[in-house]
Amino acid sequence: MKTLLRTLLYLALVVWLGAEIFFPVVAAVAFTTLQPDTHTAGMIVGHLLGILHRMGMVSGIVLLALLALAPAWNIYKPRAVLAPMVLIVLMLGCTVYSHFSIIPAMDRDRAAAGGAIDATDPGNPITAHFNKLHNRSEDVEMTILLMGIATVVLVAYAETARA
Fold it and tell me: pLDDT band at 163, cuts 50/70/90?
């Protein structure tokens, strides 16, 4: 049972972090491949971002549940799972914020701009707001990735503290 729990824990971490690492590659390929049509590339990347966020939310909930069970099953010491759990809660918070706040605001800006944000004047306040949200979205995703890497380190520490 201990091996199964740790395997599921690592799998949830790998799925979430792997998607966070791979997402910028997919976005770059989409924008490079669809170079003249950045609107379509943006729509594809936006759809994939929604999938990434849902994967992150499911993985985060699974991680929290498994880390909460780990001390009861003598897999990790209780104190060793606190820091990873805090980071996972923060990662989930960032994911929820991006998914339910930033992305819908970007969609509203895109609709207000007539659909294709890149077809509007860069000095347009709607375009400026969209770009600000886009930068914030990138910062939030980078924060999630960095906290995820720190979580991996802390889970590895929990492994050594267990011994």
Answer: low
pLDDT of residue 101: 98
Could you state, in order of their start, the residue ranges of all structural domains in the chain? 2-162
CA distance 114 to 34: 20
- State the DSSP string of 79-144: HHHHHHHHHHHHHHHHHHHIIIIIHHHHHHHHHHTTS-GGGS-TTSHHHHHHHHHHHHHHHHHHHH
Largest CA distance in the chain: 61
Q: Identify whether the C-beta of residue 103 lies closer than 8 Å to the C-beta of residue 49.
A: yes
DSSP secondary structure letter of residue 76: S
- Among 71, 56, 93, 55, smallest CA distance to 6 is for 71
Task: Dig out the tokens for 52 from the structure.
Answer: 């990434």
Q: Cα separation of 149 and 144, whole Å?
A: 9
- Give mean pLDDT, residues 72-84: 92
